[in-house]
Design goal:
By secondary structure, this protein is α/β, with parallel strands linked by helices. Helices cover about 40% and strands about 15% of the residues. It is globular and about 55 Å long.
Amino acid sequence: MLAKPIPATGEMLPAIGIGTYKGFDLADGAETRARLAEVLRRLFGAGGSIVDSSPMYGRAEARAGEALAALGRQCDAFIMTKVWTSGREAGIRQMRDSLAFFGVARIALMQIHNLVDWRTHLPTLREWQAAGTLRYIGITHYTTGAFADLEAVLQREKLDFLQVPYSIAERAAEQRLLPLCKEKGVAVIANVPFGAGRLFRAVRGRPVPGWAHEFGAATWAQFFLKYLLGHDACTCVIPGTGDPDHAADMLGAGEGRLPYEPERRRMVEALAAL
């Protein structure tokens, strides 16, 4: 799989991971466990390792941890999760719960979800990072309306990662946040890369342009993901799914080269013309 460097350390990170929102927020059961383990088996089989979750996603952390345990891959996964509560002690309890759900002693990336009580949590994250319990720290948001707040925090604080909504149809992050992250040496995670399904509805019944095969985009999922990864400030994308076949399709975007900037402009134009 294609990989990109984490600016803070130079560590190479696989470009496509699995998000667990909705797709992993499921009641326990043998069928669920087998299906979610297969999703992550395909992730590792494609050369990936990123599993992104949050306490906000209900049962997702527990199901993801069980799937990793079933595969014996807890230590191989680049686990990204979040703290999503108010108050220092509540945040500590929540992060300890995350460690227990995943069955690990260290989490690769802990993010302050949607900037909830970030001034309180950030010192704790720094303490845990210094102790080695967290490798990287970051902030997230799910709305473009919060971009000014994210920018203000990035200007003020040293962080390793930023996670934001970014898709070929929602390119607001390209205006200020992505250039700022490149300047500050902050890795960027793109969430909601399919516009919560809107992009697939827009192209339903239409073929992927033939010229997209030149950079390895054989399906619309791969087309949309490669557009994002083609931006030099976008480190990785985390499309969410609990379906093994959908996962395999999306992970295919990690093969072949990425589109050059003129090709990315052509991709935008092609979508607008539909």
